[in-house]
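FAQ: What does a multi-protein file look like?

Like this. Sequence, then tokens, then the next protein.
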Amino acid sequence: MMCLLPVAGANPALLGQAASAASTAPAAPTRYIGTIKSLSGNAVSLQTDQGMMVNVTVADGARILQLAPGSTDLKSATAIALTDVSVGDRVLVTGKAGDTPTDFNAVRLILMKATDIAQKHAQEEQAWQQHGSGGLVVSVDAAASALTITAGAKKTLIRTTPATIFRRYAGDSVKFEDATKSEFSSIQPGDQLRVLGTKSDDGATIDADEIVSGSFKNLSGTIATLDAAGGSLTLKDLATKKMVTVKVTANSAVKSLPPFAAQMLAARAHGGAAAGAAGGPGGARGMAESGGGATPARPGGAWPGAGQAAAGQGSAGPGSTGPAAGPGAGRVAGGDLSQIVARLPSAMLSSLHVGDAVMIVASQSAPGASSLTAITLLSGVEPILAASPNGSSAMTLSPWSLGSNGMAEAGTQ
């Protein structure tokens, strides 16, 4: 018997054919997938991936199997007792409906331990930090299943195979767990892309194991109208000279750059900051560590990787550097602009005013779509925009500064 059990927070789209069959059952589901919220004896409170709370009664003699994240075969599962199950574990329960729509009688549980999932996520984070690359898609060769990305002046050819895993961001989130399974054909010129794979010796080619892409826009300008209560604002984008409406949601990261940090980054954007100044006590390293006093949490906060960025190695992981940024763009000792921003405390949209200068990285449902949702909104950037009055990409924010790596698809099928 085979089934698919995704890791914590995985998108329901990843559940596979077995779960899909269950979701189409009209009235009496025979299985649920979700996260355990509480346990008492043989009673389990389960929150499904659709947000429904289900009261699961585990039958005497029920088969309980523990599966390692990433496993694809129940033959590798280990039989455990109900007492080994913990709150936070991911579980697929099989059985039949109870007396009410929220009651369920389980005869089998297949679970993945929350601790094992966290460990696997940490390993994946490290892999992206050490081996991940990113850039802006400039061309797509469908016939060759290849594409070209650029990061500043450097171009890299990305080659894919039928084994390459594709993910696609949508809506208002750049969290990996919100990315849906995708395919090569979804990638378009103008997309921002992260890739994990094997690089050629000269770094000009990458054979992709995993790709995550999304359609994002970098905006900059002054706020023309602001509706803090409704979560929206308009600004005239310096690059396009067009008025743009941007939604700000609970998932949007609203930050404010301290004045000394803005001056430092403005000098870098203008090409003037000396290397010694950047590394000094008032430089970006000190700013990254003290510009608000907040230490980023392990993802889903900001991704580490400042050391690689400072060493000139480019972006490290899905939350590291701006894929569209040029060499040294926003990059100063201690991390690039997005890494510095990730260390700042959160601000409130209500603290902004009409006339404030802002930089925004926003998601859009597809290239050219009119609906934009802020991923990161940064205020206090007047000096930066003054140094780059045409809204050039000399200083860009990265959309990859939020979310945890939930890309691993674990379970059975």
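And here is the next protein:
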Amino acid sequence: MMGVLLTNVVNAVIYAAIGIVIFAGAFLVLDKVTPYNLWKEIVQEHNTALALLLGAMSLGICVIIASAVH
């Protein structure tokens, strides 16, 4: 019983780590594809529309990764 639980926990941690790495890679690709600096636009210029778009993109990628892992 304890062996199965440990295996499930290890698998969950591995899948979570893979998902985070894929998400970070997708975010970096999006940052490089856009013609401007995302951090400067959101933080310094207070571009709310871009922040909302980035948040929606993040949720979309997370849903795709979660369904692929599941």
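Q: Is there any per-entry metadata?
A: Some entries carry free-text notes. For the entry above: The chain has a mean pLDDT of 87.
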